Amino acid sequence: MKNIYKVGIYVLVLALFLAGCSSGGDSDGASGDSKDTLRLIAPSDLTTLDSSLAVEAGAFEVMNATQEGLYRLDKDDKAEPAIATGDPKKSNDGKTWTFKLREDAKWSNGDPITAHDFVYSWRRVVDPKTASEYAYIMYDIKNAEAINKSEKKPEELGVKAINDHTLQLTLNQELPYYKELLTFGTFMPLNEKFVKKQGSKYGTTVDKTLYSGPFVMKSWKVEDNYSLKKNKHYWDKDHVSLKGINYRVIKDEQTALNLYNNDKVDTTELSSQNVESNKDKEGFNTNLESATYYIQINTQTNKDLQNKDLRAALAQAIDKKSYVEHNLNDGSKPIDTFTPEKVFTNEKKEDYNKLVNAPYTYDVKKAQASLKKAKKALGKDKIDIEFLTFDQDNAKKDAEYFKEQVEKHLPGVTMSIKQQPNKQKIALTKKGDYDVAITGWGPDYPDPMTFLDLFHSETTKGETGYDNPEYDKIINEGKSSLLQDPDKRWQELARGEEMLLNDGMVIPLYQKGKARLTKKEVHGRIIHYVGTKEYKHVKLDR
C-alpha cells in the first residue's frame, strides 16, 4: 500500500520491465476533465497493475481504487466488508476462517467474482515461479512459506473454495490484525482465465488488466498520465460519486503547485520552499503520517560497508533535525528509530515506539570516533560511497544535504550521488546493486512486524546482505509463540529493532509529514494511517 509510501506510501523494493501504454477509452487521461472527475498528481509512473507483483505506493493507491478484496479499510483504518459479506466464522482455535462472499460481485468484464478467484490469486503469489516480492506477507497462511521455498506445491496452500461463494482460510496461528491485512493489495482476487490468457503481459496495459473495484483504468500513457473511470459492474456503484480520477505524472513539485494554482489539479503536496508562502491559503494542512524514511545499507557491493564502525559513523554524522526543518518543513519529524511514533498502540493506548532505545543519534564526536576505528580496521584513510536516490528534483537536493553532512563530519569519506527513475531505482535496490540508498516504508498492517519483517534474512538478504540469526529468531517468535503474550512480544520486537539499529543496517531519518493544498470542493477523501488513499467515497462540489 505498503510506498513513499508501501502504503503504502512510496515504498521500496522491486521494479519490473513494463511496456504499458495507453489503451482503450480516451487517449488523453489528463484532459477533458468533468466536474465529477478528481484531478491528482502522481510523483512517478506506475510499474505494474498485477497485484501479485506490485510493490510501490503508486500502484497500491491505484489498486485500492480499481481492485477490491474481502475487506476495505474504513475511515478509522478498520476492516469493513467488501466482497466478504461480514466477519469470518472462526474455528475454536482461531486458525480457520470461513468467509461468505457477495453473490453480486463482478469483474469489469461481467464475470462473477468467486472464491476460486481468491484461491488462484493467493496460490499465484506464493508460487516461487511468480517471483512475488510480497510473497512473504502470506507466510502466516498454512504452508505458504514452504511453498514459496519450493518445499510444497501451491495447491497445498491453506486456502480453498468450499463453493463459489464460500472461502476458507487456514492460518498458522490466530492473528489479531489479519482482517486488516486482508485489505492489502497483494490479497486481491485474480480471474484465472483472464490472467493466463494475458500471460506475462497481465497488468502492463489498460486492456490487459481486469478490475474488481469501484473504478477501472481508462487510459495509461507511460511517464505522462493515467486515468480511471467508474466501474459499471461494481457491486456498490450506486455509492460511488466520482465519474473518474485523472493522474498527471509530475516529478517537479513547483510544476504541481502551478497546476493547482491554475485549477488543473484538486490537491498537491508542497515542497519545503513553498510551505511558508502557502500556509495561510484555504485548504492548507499538515499531518504526520505513518511512513518512515531511512538510508538502507548494502554490505555486498562496497566491502568497506561491511565494517560496523563505518556504518555507525554514518548513522551518527547526519543532523536530521536541521534536515527536517530546512529541507522538508512539512510536518515531518526527525527520528532515530526504524518504526514510526503513534502508529502501533496496544489496548492500553501505549505506543510501541516508546519501548525502543535507539543506539545512534546525531553526535559528530562519536561519529568521528567510530570512523577512526573503521579506518584502522580497514587500513585506509579514503572511503568512497555511492548514494542511490530517486530522480525527482527534491531528491537531488536531499541527497546533496546527506552528502554534505557525511563529507563535512567524516574526513576522508566521499559520497557520490546516483539519481535514477523510480522503476530503475527500485530494480537496483532489489538486485542489491547499490552502496547506500534512500528509501521509505509505510505499514501494510497495524503491527510493528510490518517494518521489522523487512530485515529478516529471508526477506532482504539479497538486497542488503543482512543475515543475523538472533534477529531472525526474534522475528520468527514474534509471529508464533510470542503471540500469546502481547507485552513480552512487544519487548522482544523492540529488542530486535534495537539490534537492527545497532548493526547499522538502516539509518532512520524522519517520520514523514505532508503539507498539502486541497480544493474546498473535495469531500470524503481518506488518507489511511495504515494503508493507502481511499477515493471510493469522494464527492466533488463543483
Account of the 3D structure:
The protein is of the alpha+beta class and 542 residues long. The protein is 28% helix and 20% strand. The chain has helices at 57-66, 115-126, 144-148, 178-181, 192-198, 253-261, 272-278, 308-316, 320-328, 364-378, 393-409, 422-431, 449-452, 457-464, 469-478, 486-502, and strands at residues 37-42, 71-73, 79-81, 89-90, 96-100, 159-163, 166-170, 215-221, 225-230, 244-249, 267-269, 284-297, 333-334, 383-390, 413-420, 436-441, 506-518, 522-523, 526-527, 533-534, 539-540. The strands form 6 sheets. Strands 11, 12, 13, 14, 15, 16 and 17 form a 7-stranded mixed sheet that branches. A 4-stranded mixed sheet has the order 1-10-9-8, with helices on one face. A hairpin with a 5-residue loop joins strand 19 (526-527) and strand 20. Keywords: Peptide transport, Protein transport, Signal, Transport. GO terms for molecular function: peptide transmembrane transporter activity. One of its GO terms (biological process) is peptide transport.
Principal-axes shape call: globular
Number of strand segments: 21
* Average of per-residue pLDDT values: 91
- Classify the beta-strand content into a percent band: 15-25%
Question: Gap between N and C termini, in Å?
Answer: 30 Å
Name given to the CATH architecture of the domain at 289-514: Roll
Regarding quaternary structure, how should these chains be classified?
single chain
* Count of helix runs: 16
Radius of gyration: 23 Å
Question: CATH topology of the domain at 289-514, what is it called?
Answer: Dipeptide-binding Protein, domain 3
Give the CATH H-level superfamily of the domain at 289-514: Dipeptide-binding Protein, Domain 3
Largest beta-sheet details: 7 strands, mixed
CATH class of the domain at 289-514: Alpha Beta
Helix content: 25-40%
Which stretches are poorly predicted, pLDDT < 50 over at least 5 residues?
A: 1-31
The assigned structural class equals alpha+beta
